[in-house]
């Protein structure tokens, strides 16, 4: 407990004493940001075995950037003392680590740019390559190497990347190189009212076959250390209509760390969006066939991913609607999502409006071998609708209903569970600074753990203080409640939050990518600041 209080005091004092960005010279600018997420874990008889031996975890990130005209440089220092419970970073050989997580220097001209250091980049929809950071997941798969890009007016853009991928707090033994090409047909022919472009990408992963490894790559069907992936894309836009399509393929590879045979992979992605005034509708369809791609065949976990395959499902913030989120089946799935939105505005007052939103998503297994019945099985479906009403300056209400059906075996068995989720969300503003928001939620189910109830209350004193408390209770299964209470304080570019509560074991998702988080009870201190 002393450690968390000392750390909190030190970083808070540094943050709130800092202000603005530091300018050097005539145009040079130095900026920095700091983030910490620190938890002191306590023993809880209600969830035995859920407390780490150290009773302490802290993930910290200090990022410093310098810009001068066309030149920029930066570093990110990361500290894990040790890594938070449930983060795969903490399962490495040295869970306590202070290291230079990323660094770069770059030069950006009008038509040319080059970056040396840790590269963050995405080709197309990410089906064959995406290097990015997500601190909530403990994921950073940037390439330590170089990126070069060249553009010829608006007609042509070419990018090239090369480097070794970061794997948690080390670097993988593989090397990745690739190129992305985009040609704007509309700009070439000067079609002002139409957007039309064709794009293509190539990624190569080279991994030497480690003679000391217990894996026999040749018996797995891997006769070369090279993996090649290709992608072709078309983008079209006209007035309120937008169409996108992508096809990707890969040579023989192990799609997951548990795979026992190398196979080829392919993916199809299609998206259509139409909007007219206050109405919009979008549809997304995707086929994945063994498209899971690891940074390294020797690695495992969420962070060991070279490409980006998020779930095509609605991303919720409500507790019960997000109780059992869907995870992509990289071995094979057919998935789709439809999303429709309509807004009805009052002509008399801009403080009065209706927002109507409907969404449906579903995912099925792709191959008969994925199911014990040797048939195509449902893995996920979610039909939901919500209505938001702004009654005036003070009162806003949201009503949401979601029917979720999901497979506990990820489609291997025919059995599925059904959850009917009801949410009421009310916000009342007493004046310009004080407001109260209350959520009431209920999950009705005859399966799994049965019914759940949840509530949340948050009182805000704008622009600085917010106090909140929530509880989530399983009425029929475990009959456990998961509570949380705390406050946050914001000043300028800095924000701190302190909370205490019990957290349920389950999957935490960000952008459709998920990691498993074990149950725990503890005191949580978070802070973000920029200066």
Describe the protein's architecture and organization.
The chain has 531 residues and is mainly beta. Helices cover 4% and strands 58% of the residues. It has helices at residues 2-17, 185-188, and strands spanning 22-24, 28-41, 56-68, 71-80, 97-108, 112-119, 121-122, 130-131, 133-134, 139-140, 143-152, 156-167, 170-171, 174-184, 194-207, 226-238, 241-253, 263-276, 279-289, 332-345, 353-365, 378-390, 395-406, 417-429, 434-444, 452-461, 465-474, 481-491, 494-503, 506-510, 513-517, 520-530. The protein has a 24-stranded antiparallel β-barrel. Strand 1 (22-24) and strand 2 form a beta hairpin. The chain starts with a helix and ends with a strand. The relative contact order is 0.12.
Helix-strand blueprint:
Blueprint: H1 2-17, E1 22-24, E2 28-41, E3 56-68, E4 71-80, E5 97-108, E6 112-119, E7 121-122, E8 130-131, E9 133-134, E10 139-140, E11 143-152, E12 156-167, E13 170-171, E14 174-184, H2 185-188, E15 194-207, E16 226-238, E17 241-253, E18 263-276, E19 279-289, E20 332-345, E21 353-365, E22 378-390, E23 395-406, E24 417-429, E25 434-444, E26 452-461, E27 465-474, E28 481-491, E29 494-503, E30 506-510, E31 513-517, E32 520-530
Antiparallel strand pairs: 1-2, 2-3, 2-32, 3-4, 4-5, 5-6, 6-11, 7-8, 9-10, 11-12, 12-13, 12-14, 14-15, 15-16, 16-17, 17-18, 18-19, 19-20, 20-21, 21-22, 22-23, 23-24, 24-25, 25-26, 26-27, 27-28, 28-29, 29-32, 30-31
Question: What descriptors fit this protein?
Answer:
about 525 residues, two-stranded antiparallel ribbon, 32 strands
């Amino acid at each position: 407990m002393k450690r968390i209080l000392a750390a909190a005091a030190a970083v808070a004092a540094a943050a709130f004493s800092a202000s603005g960005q530091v300018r050097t010279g005539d145009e040079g600018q130095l900026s920095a940001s700091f983030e910490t997420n620190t938890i002191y874990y306590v023993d809880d008889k209600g969830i035995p075995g859920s407390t780490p031996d150290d009773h302490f975890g802290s993930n910290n990130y200090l990022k410093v950037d310098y810009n001068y005209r066309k030149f920029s440089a930066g570093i990110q220092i990361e500290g894990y003392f040790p890594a938070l419970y449930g983060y795969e970073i903490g399962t490495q050989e040295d869970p306590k680590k202070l290291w230079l997580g990323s660094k770069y220097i770059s030069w950006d001209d009008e038509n040319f740019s080059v970056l040396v250091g840790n590269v963050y980049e995405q080709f197309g929809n990410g089906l064959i390559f995406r290097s990015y950071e997500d601190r909530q997941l403990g994921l950073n798969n940037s390439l330590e190497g170089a990126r070069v890009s060249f553009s010829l007016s608006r007609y042509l853009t070419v990018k090239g990347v090369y480097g070794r991928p970061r794997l948690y707090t080390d670097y993988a033994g593989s090397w990745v190189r690739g190129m992305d090409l985009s040609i704007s047909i509309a700009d070439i022919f000067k079609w002002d009212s139409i957007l039309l472009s064709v794009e293509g990408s190539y990624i190569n992963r080279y991994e030497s076959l480690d003679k000391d490894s217990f894996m026999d790559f040749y018996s797995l069907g891997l006769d070369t250390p090279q993996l090649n992936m290709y992608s072709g894309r078309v983008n079209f836009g006209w007035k309120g209509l937008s169409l996108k399509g992508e096809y990707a393929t890969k040579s023989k590879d192990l799609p997951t760390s548990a795979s026992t045979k190398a196979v080829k992979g392919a993916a199809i992605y299609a998206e259509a969006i139409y909007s007219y005034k206050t109405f919009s509708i979008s549809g997304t369809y995707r086929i994945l066939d063994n498209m899971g791609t690891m940074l390294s065949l020797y690695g495992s976990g969420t962070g060991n991913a070279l490409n980006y395959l998020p779930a095509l499902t609605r991303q919720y913030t409500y507790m019960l609607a997000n109780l059992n989120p869907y995870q992509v089946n990289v071995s094979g799935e057919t998935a789709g999502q439809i999303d429709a939105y309509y807004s009805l505005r009052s002509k008399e007052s801009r403080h009065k409006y209706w927002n109507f939103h409907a969404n449906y998503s579903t995912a099925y297994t792709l191959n008969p071998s994925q199911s014990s019945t040797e048939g195509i099985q449902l893995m996920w479906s979610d039909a939901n609708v919500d209505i938001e009403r702004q009654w005036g300056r003070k009162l806003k209400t949201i009503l949401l209903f979601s029917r979720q059906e999901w497979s506990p075996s990820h489609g291997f068995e025919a059995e599925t569970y059904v959850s009917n989720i009801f949410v009421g969300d009310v916000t009342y503003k007493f004046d310009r600074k004080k407001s109260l928001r209350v959520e009431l939620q209920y999950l009705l189910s005859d399966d799994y753990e049965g019914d759940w109830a949840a509530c949340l209350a948050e009182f805000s004193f704008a622009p600085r203080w917010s106090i909140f408390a929530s509880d989530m209770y399983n009425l029929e299964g475990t009959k456990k409640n998961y509570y949380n209470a705390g406050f946050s304080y914001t000043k300028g570019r800095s924000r701190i939050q302190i909370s205490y509560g019990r957290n349920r074991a389950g999957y935490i998702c960000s952008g459709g990518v998920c990691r498993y988080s074990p149950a725990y009870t503890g005191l949580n201190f978070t802070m973000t600041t920029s200066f």
